[in-house]
Amino acid sequence: MRSSFRFVSVATIAAMLAAVPGSAQRSTGPKERYEMDVATMSGFAAMTAGGGKPGMGSALGMMFGGSPESRVAHTLELRLGSNQAPSSPPVKADHFFLPQAKLGASVPLLPHEPGKRTETEYNEVPKDFERPKGRLLLFWGCGAKAGPGQPVVIDFSKMAAGQMPPNLFTSTVPRVREVMASNSASYADWPNRKSSKPVPAGSSLLGAHRVASNVGPEINFTLAQDYMPGLNASTTQQADGSVMIRWNQIAPATGYVAWAFGGMDRGGGNADMVWWTSASAREFGGGLWEWLPPATVANLVAKKIVMPPAQTSCEIPAEAKKASGEMMFGNLNAFGPEANFSYPPKPAGNAVWNIDWTAKVRFRSQTSLMIGADFGGMGGSSRGGSEAPAEPEKKKKCKGPLGIPLPTC
Fold this sequence. Notes:
Elements: H1 10-19, E1 27-28, E2 32-42, H2 56-60, E3 72-82, E4 93-96, E5 106-109, E6 135-140, E7 152-155, E8 186-190, E9 207-213, E10 219-223, E11 233-237, E12 243-247, E13 255-262, E14 273-277, H3 294-302, E15 313-316, H4 318-324, E16 328-343, E17 353-354, E18 357-371, E19 397-399, E20 405-408
Parallel strand pairs: 1-17, 2-18, 6-14
Antiparallel strand pairs: 2-3, 3-8, 4-5, 4-9, 6-7, 9-10, 11-12, 12-15, 13-14, 13-16, 16-18, 19-20
């Protein structure tokens, strides 16, 4: 299941601009593109930090086993793409950090091994996908009561074998990733098969960064933005049957989006499953699961698809909670700032800008939402602190919408 949104690389855009007659300034390149995804995870979401890939696949697979530690964890995803072949195969690269990053002198970026999942598959249903049965009920919007036309009901028993529901995932919200193996002559990333260590507590990314490789010029940039603060979210059942979600406002956040699944505690393969999102329109998936540029987020806030940065609460409608049964599982995503770098500096006037490299650093913070379940007395809260409650009793695993495994229930 791939997003229908088509992406255009920075290199392609630069080439298009260079070909436009009379454009103010022409450019070539970049020869190399670097992308660095910086995430803060709190609550149950912190349990997978350092081991999982971002995207829909990992979002739906969060929270397997372990204890519901109330803590903040950080993750990094590093990707290097070049339009040049390596000077001496295979592709090799290293990202060098300052000591405060606590990641050693550097981490190695390596090319994909044959058969490894690529970035185009991160938003796909896992290979152990089981064809869903029963129905999927879609709700959206913040409020005590569901809006008109809700829920949209998808009956899987009426669908052809293996067919996915049409228009289930958004085509309005892009899934933005400019550096991919598919648009690069040479590609390497981290974590990888040989290096995949968690980011240590107290790590800081402030200061100088250097990326050296055998596929292009050295990349150097300095970060003034560090990991975003952790989200502290709580959920409260209201007298009218709705569920209030509250969270702390994070200064660097550009907007928030929440989603939740329900019905996984009912068992029996024909049970109704529920999927709710905070968007004011029927918008599921896409970039709402991941990182989005501040300008894109601002546009989505104006359209009420993303909640504004000053908002700190949202209600799950009573109808969605009632249809979900006892327990719901979800996520709160805070989109963050973005830092962009390029070399050499843009020349003045109409001189051609021959770009050697670009680097983009994206930030976000997210936390999990547990509604109606008691995990070690934690209930529906997800707090970014340091104290870890007792490990909960192991329970059976559940299946969420589309048959994808969800946390124990």
